[in-house]
Amino acid sequence: MKAIDFKILSEKPAATVIAPSMIKRRVDAGHFRPIFLRNEQALVNGGFETAFLGDLYSKGNYGSLPDSVDYSETGIVLIRGTDLQSMAVTLAEAVRVPTAYYDKFKKARVKGGDILLLIKGASIDRPDSVAMFPQCNERAIANGSIFILRPEKSKTNPYYLLSFMTSAPFLLQKRRGSSNTGALYNDLDTIKSFVVPIPDHRIQDYIGVKVELAERCRAHALKKKGQAFRIFDSDIAWKAEYEEPLGSHWLQPEYLETRLDLNFNSPKKLRLYEYFKDERIETTLLQDVAEISAMIGWKGLTTEHYVEDGPWLLRGVEIRDGYIDFESLVSVQRDKYDEQPQIHLKHGDVVMTKDGTIGKAIVIPEIHNEMAAGSTVARLRPRKKPSINPYYLEFVINHPVLQIQIQSFATGLAQPHITQEWIAKLRIPRISRERKIADLIASHHSLMTKAQYLVADAKSDVEALIEGTLDTNAILSGKLKPPTWEDIEKELKEENK
Fold this sequence. Notes:
alpha+beta, 15 helices, globular
């Protein structure tokens, strides 16, 4: 690959002189910004072989765009850009479309090991814009905002390639290659022309094995979570039919409250209450097992109060499946944090989103900084008596038995919202195996957190490789070895003591 020739005359305003050989399809000034040229120079002149992305995959297809009216409760998975997180696909939150779409949109089919690349939208260059579809039994297709590529294993380690595609040098290429005609977009020629560094296979394997181990951690975490669901569903005799839509249901006088709206008196919630009664499920109100703090606002807090370094603000969008995305957290000024001690967070608190996407819950892990709940998040602090394990509380909030109640208690059409008054009245099933479920969910979180550390480490390795700071000699000589699954298991045992 030819070295690039340019000279930067000025950073602001940007002024650059480029060689005629660098002019190809685009001549707009934005395409030749200094940051883009330096990035390409670092890739091409980095002392290792490079290849075009188009030469590294055997299959490359765009997804298809089913109409949202075709979304269904069952069927095959439809992967959208929002389902790509931390090099993985969040299948649990993905929408579904009719099974017939798998044959109707054959080019959009996704298989285990395929890399999914977000190529359309404002988030085109975010780290979560690339992921690998896991080896699983789920049949899936990708929507039109995603490009599907199947790596050629003989040409590159797929996990190394995935690591590079989430790194800053690749994301800068995505941004540079995007057309700006209302919505950012990478066309096929642009995708094929992305430059990929191809170091010695031992270096690729050293980096790639971390991503592979992260995938294994996620698979084990999924098993832990599945086991927790099976125990809970068995103990309360839960049936999938309780989650299905219901056309109508009699409203018994004992369930009358201050609200008569259809959403509050939804047939699904009324059927749930009848189920509690018929199956003699012991329940307790959330307010009896947890102190609840849910703010309506925060004394004029705006983005102007965000700072580079300070107490964290948890807004809810950072909540993932089993972990908090700490890189997405913002910090607020110390004086604003001190104003609201009632929503300060500590290890063992449970937080639940109460605005927008309501009902997402997670336990606050051990953290090395102060943190507060934003106005869209409720803080649930388990009481000492009667006690409840925070991991069990998180689990049950995320289970349909609570989700049905949360959706029923919500108000607002464009922006669903649940108030502290109704959070307090959520009915929590109490079972004998709460501790077992809590332990499984805690293990799930440990595995998911470990997966996050591994993918972050792999991405850092790629960036260090390009910057020339990765100790490649130690890797090639065998002095620097990647972690093994046995190492991961040992670390997790130490953490859980």
